Amino acid sequence: AAAMNPFKFLKSLFTPAPRLRPWQCAPRVLSAQAVLIDVREPGEWRPGVAEGAVLLPLSDLGGSREIWRPFLEKNAGRELLCYCAAGGRSAIAARTLVAEGFRAANAGSLQDWKNSGWPVVPPKD
């Protein structure tokens, strides 16, 4: 797997990305203006994922982008809302995407989504 360009990675660390709450994101996701993305790793998805979320591990975004590249090409015009287990990795993902010119935001943790009443469902294979 190709490593991420260190300059690009550094730039992403200093790129601000908005931090949004589920109630701010939900209408955009439901109207398909935005895509909800679970950036946790595959082993973490088993207990449940936010309904409708696309499962794209952060390791692939920072690595070869086998799954991310086609997704980004297909969703270039939409807002990308990332969440993870606690909100740390989703912040990295959102900043990386913003640094590359995408409209992206950190949508917090899966628990935030659960607490907001958003359904959590088993991942689709």
What would you say about this model in short?
By secondary structure, the protein is α/β, with parallel strands linked by helices. The chain is built from seven helices and six strands; from the N terminus they run ααβαββααβαβαβ. The chain has helices at residues 6-13, 22-30, 42-45, 58-61, 68-74, 88-99, 110-115, and strands at residues 34-38, 49-50, 54-55, 79-84, 104-109, 120-121.
Polypeptide structure, described:
This protein has 125 residues and is of the alpha/beta class. Strands 3-1-4-5 form a four-stranded parallel sheet, sandwiched between helices. It has a two-stranded antiparallel sheet with strand order 2-6. α6 (88-99) links the parallel β4 and β5 (104-109). The chain has seven helices and six strands. The mean pLDDT is 91.
